[in-house]
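Usage

Read records sequentially. Each one opens with the input sequence:
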Amino acid sequence: MAHTFPPSRLEAFSDGVIAVIITIMVLELHVPHENGAAGLQAIAPILGVYGLSFAFVGIYWVNHHLLVHGIREASPRVLWANLVWLFLLSLLPFFTSYVQEKHRDSFSVSLYAASLALTGFGFMLLRMTINDRRRAEGTIVHADLAVQAKHWGSLATYAACIALAHWYPMTTLCIIGGITLVWVIPTLGVERCETETPHSPHHP
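and closes with the structure output:
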């Protein structure tokens, strides 16, 4: 039988990595050269992209906490799946900086959408691995499958954004923002399942 580990260690390690990711992103913000309102207006788009990435990471942090608390023990498979997700998430500061440096052109926004899609897929892999663990523990519930279906829908939208960015980069960023807002309330769209199983975990 494979060794298992307390999920608290996995969560603590992930919290540390996520804190570093957010720190790296904020260090990329610089004071504008212009003075007054004109300077703030000049960096408003940069702050907007930063805010979007921060919300993306923050929502993952909240939902990762809920997801990990759904298992009693973490198996090696769960640890490796978590590392894959953290690796993909750690690339977000680079793509956030890239889309800012390239002034949100079509190619940079497409890459940004691709990075979000890959991160979302990594989290789906983690969720599926944790679901397998929960099946072994006998704690899997129907609400998990409903939220998983919602997650697949988000991934499909991210994939569509990769192509859409070639023609409408700003519209693509707005759609990405909409997907992020949907996951502020993880139960949005799956309230019926949540009524049946109010303590199940969720993810973006």
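Summary fields computed downstream for this record:
- The longest helix spans residues 36-68.
- Residues 7-196 form one domain.
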